[in-house]
Amino acid sequence: MLGADHTWSPERVASLLGDDYGDNPSKHTLGRDHGLAEFFWQRPGPGHPWVGTHFSVQAHRLRYRDPEMINLLVRDRYGPFDGPVPFAEVSALLAARGVRLDEVPYPPDPDEMRTYRQPDAGILVSVVAGAYYGQAGDLYSVSSSSKP
To answer: SS3 of 26, please?
Structure first.
């Protein structure tokens, strides 16, 4: 996400994306919402440094068509997002670049969601399959992993 990854500290992510975010803290975990992008950390307890675990891009939020929901730096870099992103466009672009996606089971709701994994990077791509999570074929989210 604009060069940031799961290894960045909360302060470093905020230095890139700004201080307009929502926190979801607990004693051992911190989730920070920067619009479409969310970053997550954990630690053994107060006084210990946060260690990044993953980040995600919540593409399903684009269906609300609210430009203010998208971080200003992201809007400045990539322009406006007019609505949901079709997975067909994303998968065609990745295929043209030689990037492989393997479908993996999504046991919680297999009729409503499809999940793909990019094996080299460990990135997970979730795609709406039914009608519950949006329109079938729309990109739902992209999530990093702390491990490939």
So the answer is: coil
Q: What is the pLDDT of residues 37-80, one digit of tens each?
A: 999 999 999 999 999 999 999 999 999 988 888 888 888 998 88
**Greatest CA separation found in the chain?**
47
Measured distance CA(10)–CA(1) in Å, rounded? 14
For 101, the token pair is 């996606």
Classify 65 in phi/psi space as left (phi over 0), alpha (psi -120 to 50) or beta. Answer: left
CB 28 within 8 A of CB 40: no
Q: b vs e for 49-78, b when ≥16 Cβ sit within 10 Å of the residue's Cβ? A: ebebbbbbbbbbbbbeeeeeebbebbbeee
Block residue for tokens 């980040």: 55
* Assessment of whether the complete model's pTM goes beyond 0.85: yes
Q: Which of 68, 101, 65 is nearest to 85 (CA)?
A: 65
